[in-house]
UniProtKB/TrEMBL annotation:
<feature type="domain" description="GAIN-B">
    <location>
        <begin position="1"/>
        <end position="71"/>
    </location>
</feature>
<keyword id="KW-0325">Glycoprotein</keyword>
<keyword id="KW-0812">Transmembrane</keyword>
<dbReference type="GO" id="GO:0007189">
    <property type="term" value="P:adenylate cyclase-activating G protein-coupled receptor signaling pathway"/>
</dbReference>
<keyword id="KW-1015">Disulfide bond</keyword>
<dbReference type="Pfam" id="PF01825">
    <property type="entry name" value="GPS"/>
</dbReference>
<dbReference type="InterPro" id="IPR001740">
    <property type="entry name" value="GPCR_2_EMR1-like_rcpt"/>
</dbReference>
<keyword id="KW-1133">Transmembrane helix</keyword>
<dbReference type="GO" id="GO:0004930">
    <property type="term" value="F:G protein-coupled receptor activity"/>
</dbReference>
<dbReference type="GO" id="GO:0005886">
    <property type="term" value="C:plasma membrane"/>
</dbReference>
<dbReference type="InterPro" id="IPR000203">
    <property type="entry name" value="GPS"/>
</dbReference>
<keyword id="KW-0472">Membrane</keyword>
<dbReference type="InterPro" id="IPR046338">
    <property type="entry name" value="GAIN_dom_sf"/>
</dbReference>
<feature type="transmembrane region" description="Helical">
    <location>
        <begin position="74"/>
        <end position="98"/>
    </location>
</feature>
<protein>
    <submittedName>
        <fullName>AGRE1 protein</fullName>
    </submittedName>
</protein>
<dbReference type="InterPro" id="IPR057244">
    <property type="entry name" value="GAIN_B"/>
</dbReference>
<dbReference type="InterPro" id="IPR000832">
    <property type="entry name" value="GPCR_2_secretin-like"/>
</dbReference>
Amino acid sequence: TFNVTFNLTLQHRTVPRAGEEPRCVYWQLVGTEGRWTSSGCTRVGGGALWSVCTCTHFSTFAILMAIHPITESFALSVVTYVGLSVSLVCLFLTIITFLLSRSLWSISIILHLQLSICLFA
């Protein structure tokens, strides 16, 4: 952090929709993970296609247009869990089939068995 501020002009990739206010943010590392945060940076001006940000530090900067929490729909959750369950059952049956048909074993079958075990894991 510096005792002085500096201005940074960033170009938008899209025009903000009605009700959306662009925010100046930077990438902050927190432990081994990172996140976008606006502390130390504020939007002081700009237009529909650009923003002027004033910041107290150097970092990787960006403009966030729509700041809405990501909500996962119930239908997407159901499809995800049903699809995962069906896939695991089918992979388990495939592994059992490969193990029980030792008389047909070849390099190809062994490779497919190993692939099925990896996908199941």
